[in-house]
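Can you please make up a protein's amino acid sequence together with its fold in token form to help me picture the idea?
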Amino acid sequence: MEYLEVSTQWRIPLDELEFEYARSSGPGGQNVNKVSSKATLRWNIERATSFPEGARERLAAQFGSRITTGGEFLVTNQEYRDQERNRQACLERLVEILRSIERPPRKRKATRPSRGSKERRLAGKRLRSQTKEQRRGPGSDG
């Protein structure tokens, strides 16, 4: 069985991935009307066997628009004129997406602004206030 390597700990069996091909909209001249070069990768993440904990939720949160109501994750490519290069581009894009959600994001540590940053902020506000005040005409009331 062949696998798609996402990372050293994560591999996806290629038989879980399905490809569909359609006619591409784009360059290709007369050939564009004859050859189905656009590739669409479909991966049913509901039935996927090789999902790390929490990755499914992160995938749905970040890339929810790519998931169908049937639970299939879609990646399409029509950049190239030939089917195989578009197929490879779909696989590369899938790996790129999965690597981006592989690890959970770090929790933000609550910090307080430093005294200097508060002073700089207030000095900037004073300066802006003075600039606006100087724009007013001599007889204006505010």
